[in-house]
Design brief:
This protein is α+β, with helices and mostly antiparallel strands. The chain has helices spanning 3-32, 84-97, 101-104, 121-129, 142-151, 196-208, and strands spanning 41-48, 53-55, 61-63, 71-77, 107-113, 136-138, 156-163, 166-171, 175-178, 183-188. The chain has two domains: 1-33; 41-208, Glutaredoxin, CATH 3.40.30. The strands form three sheets. Strands 1-10-9-4-5-6 form a six-stranded mixed sheet. The chain has a two-stranded antiparallel ribbon with strand order 2-3. A two-stranded antiparallel ribbon has the order 7-8. A hairpin with a 2-residue loop joins strand 7 and strand 8 (166-171).
Length: 210
């Protein structure tokens, strides 16, 4: 075997080694990339979101599962709420309006009443739509609302009752993000929805995953 042949063989072996190393780097590189850290509190693992059947404005019934394939932001509140409800809904509107049209088509905001005695489907529907025409307000009988709230860890009770028709409702003010697979994945405590940019990034992240 001549020297030139030995040199050629060594060169080919070295090239094969470099190609193998490059292939390993390509396969392993994603593992070393920094993973996205959501702004909302993440449930690990995500759990199947409690499905429900409630009534919207116009008498139309909706189930949570009707929105499979979309990211769904759920807020529990009521139309006569003087502070946290209008503020949170306004913040959710800002998040929604910061999305591109194609992203908006894959996002749904739902407001579920915590005051089924006064909030008819028509009333809570008009209230939700006042913040964005795409938002849906939902109502139902007290027992159904109570079961849904319990499933999401939401508490509420009547307080400061001046009369049977004039009262406030204290309630959990969290926002829940259900991913397109129908899993409850992120929870936003009070005040977090004011951070529009970070909320939008979370929505981008949820929509980008398959």
């Amino acid at each position: 075997m001549t020297l030139s042949t030995k040199t050629l063989r060594r060169g080919l072996l070295a090239l094969a080694g470099l190609l193998l190393l490059a292939l390993l780097l390509i396969l392993l590189y994603p593992r070393f990339l920094p993973t996205y850290q959501p702004f909302g509190t993440r449930l690990l693992p995500p759990r199947v979101a409690y499905d429900f059947n409630l009534t919207a404005q116009g008498g139309q019934s909706y189930r949570l599962s009707d929105f499979r394939g979309k990211a769904v932001l759920i807020f529990f509140g009521y139309a006569n709420c003087p502070d946290v409800c209008p503020l949170t809904m306004l913040e959710l509107a800002r998040v929604y309006q910061a999305l591109s049209p194609s992203e908006q088509a894959r996002v749904q905001v739902l407001m579920i009443t915590t005051d089924p005695k006064r909030d008819t489907a028509e009333l809570i529907g008009r209230y939700a739509r006042a913040f964005d025409p795409s938002f849906i307000g939902l109502s139902g009988d007290p027992e159904t609302i109570a079961a849904i709230a319990k499933a999401y860890g939401v508490g509420y009770f009547t307080q400061s009752a001046e009369s049977p028709e004039q009262y406030l409702v204290a309630h959990t003010s969290a926002v829940f993000l259900v991913n397109p697979k129908g899993q409850l994945e992120l929870i936003y405590s009070r005040g977090k929805t004011a951070q529009t940019g970070q909320m939008v990034q979370d929505v981008h992240w949820v929509l980008s995953r398959r």
